[in-house]
């Protein structure tokens, strides 16, 4: 498959009154044409910062891409001027956020909001842009699109508004769509509908998707690959099957154990005790050591390198060293009993 995005050794810091917060530390992720990658982690893990760095949407005054490359079709987005990035953002790479209300302008009809990007990037006439807006509303399953194109955001329900936001993001046929917690603000039934819609749209349009989420449960049906982030680093990455059925990092075990499972009603759900590391003073060793029930001395002293478990599966944990004791995942982290 053709590589479309390659993030290499990304390091992002925020400059705060308290000092430098090293929010993203040495992140490597890639995305092939038409594929879907989920980036999963708790809040503060660096997942949203990574996605905003790709879009170059981080605050210029207080943040900095300190090191690394964000290669999109060979161009390093980290080094583009704001003007060059403007041409890519919204046309080649689009982003949708958690709360559709904050992404939409309450004073403009949704038709105008969809047409704005089309007129800016695709040089369409007003009539052509309106026709395309109606087709996009059809694509995201908004009933009566010819009428609703003239309505305002407050006339739509939360789920419908998120569909409109998706229509805006897809307006210019982007090659990559970054969805940052796209269903978190919605109720459970609507969440499922939006995820179904995204999967359907991916098949129809071939847009590659990066799904940013704290919820492993939303990953299974939408993403082919998963990257698990913790403390500003990627701790495990693999195909969705590898991460769900053969997880190797204790943090991934914790995430899986805290996820409700239909086939395991009587299994205990385990929360991960403790809090993420303070990235003003990131630990020198494994970022998960303070919360890990299997931590050894080496874990606090040295950062583990990523171990290759297959051509697609890697995890960074000292338990994968051949000298480490053999540790099995907790029962609650076993999905479907297959391993
Ligand atoms: Fe736990 Fe050590 Fe592995 Fe980190 S490296 S996850 S502390 S066992």
TrEMBL record:
Residues 7-256 form the ABC transporter domain. GO terms for biological process: peptide transport. Its main location: membrane. Pfam families: ABC_tran (PF00005), oligo_HPY (PF08352). Keywords: ATP-binding, Cell membrane, Membrane, Nucleotide-binding, Transport. It is found in: Cell membrane. The keyword Nucleotide-binding applies. It is a peripheral membrane protein. InterPro entries: AAA+_ATPase, ABC_Ni/Peptide_Import, ABC_transporter-like_ATP-bd, ABC_transporter-like_CS, Oligopep_ABC_C, P-loop_NTPase. GO terms for molecular function: ATP binding; ATP hydrolysis activity. One of its GO terms (cellular component) is plasma membrane. The keyword Nucleotide-binding applies. PANTHER family: DIPEPTIDE TRANSPORT ATP-BINDING PROTEIN DPPD, OLIGOPEPTIDE TRANSPORT ATP-BINDING PROTEIN APPD. Belongs to the ABC transporter superfamily. This is Oligopeptide/dipeptide ABC transporter ATPase. It comes from Fictibacillus macauensis ZFHKF-1.
């Amino acid at each position: 498959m053709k590589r479309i995005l390659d993030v290499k050794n990304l390091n992002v810091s925020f400059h705060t009154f308290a000092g430098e917060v090293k929010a993203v530390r040495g992140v490597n992720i890639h995305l092939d044409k038409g594929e879907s990658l989920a980036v999963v982690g708790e809040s503060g893990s660096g997942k949203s910062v990574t996605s905003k760095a790709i879009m170059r949407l981080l605050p210029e005054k207080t943040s900095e891409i300190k090191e690394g490359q964000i290669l999109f079709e060979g161009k390093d987005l980290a080094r583009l001027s704001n003007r060059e990035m403007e041409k890519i953002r919204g046309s080649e790479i689009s982003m949708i956020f958690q709360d559709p209300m904050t992404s939409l302008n309450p004073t403009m009809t949704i038709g105008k909001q969809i047409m704005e990007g089309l007129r800016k990037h695709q040089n369409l006439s007003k009539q052509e842009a309106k026709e395309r807006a109606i087709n996009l509303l059809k694509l995201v399953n908004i009933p009566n699109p010819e009428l609703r194109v003239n309505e305002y955001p407050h006339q739509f329900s939360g789920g419908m508004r998120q569909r409109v936001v998706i229509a805006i993001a897809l307006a210019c046929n982007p090659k990559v769509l970054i969805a940052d917690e796209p269903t978190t603000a919605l109720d459970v039934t609507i969440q499922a509908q939006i995820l179904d819609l995204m999967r359907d749209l991916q098949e129809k349009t071939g847009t590659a998707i990066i799904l940013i989420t704290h919820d492993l449960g939303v990953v299974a049906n939408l993403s082919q690959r998963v990257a698990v982030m913790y403390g500003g680093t990627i701790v495990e990455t693999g195909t969705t099957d590898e991460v769900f059925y053969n997880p190797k990092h204790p943090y991934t075990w914790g995430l899986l154990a805290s996820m409700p499972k239909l086939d395991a009603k009587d299994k205990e759900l385990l929360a991960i005790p403790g809090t993420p590391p303070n990235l003003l003073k990131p630990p020198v060793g494994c970022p998960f050591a303070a919360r890990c029930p299997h931590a050894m001395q080496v874990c606090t002293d040295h950062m583990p390198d990523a171990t290759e478990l297959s051509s697609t599966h890697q995890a960074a944990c000292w338990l994968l060293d051949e000298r480490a004791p053999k540790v099995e995942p907790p029962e609650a982290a076993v999905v479907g009993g297959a391993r």
